[in-house]
Amino acid sequence: MLAITVCAYSAPDVQLGVGEEHTFRLGTGTAIGERHYSWFVDGIDQEVDADSITLSWDDVGLYRLSASYSVNGCMSEPAIIEIEVTGEVSCPDIDPAKFFTPDGDGVNEFWWIKNIECYPDAKIEIFDRYSRRLAFFTGEEFINLKGWDGYYNGHPMPSDDYWYYIRDVIPYKPRSGHFILKRGNK
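The structure corresponding to this sequence follows.
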């Protein structure tokens, strides 16, 4: 979630995706006294008397957010932001699983990366402890396969730590880490 500070008299225009939730904060400077806040979207009072408001939009379009405050009854000039809501939906960050257990019980059978479906162009590599690359997938291939099954060249890999390297995901910096493959005792 992005927090945007709105200062009285000036505010940047913002572009958001449909369904993205953002928090807007109204900077009030150093004024001392009892403060009250007003937030309006396209002239409709949001009935929030707080220095911040969290909003999201369900429809594409151009919206106008205005915010003002009063200190001891003296009202500020409104800060106005033009918000363009596009059809592009922002994706949450990826979250690689810490372990998986491909033992045939139907639970955690594949190593998975949460939210990878938002990044079909990602490049995913899996390595063993000797830096041997065991698997390479694009995000789309990884999604279609439902993750990595723990096999290399048709053979099941043993219980051990494995490493991943993931490229081309937002915010466009490579991710690396490790996970555990744990096979059951059968």
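The chain has two domains: 2-86, 95-181.
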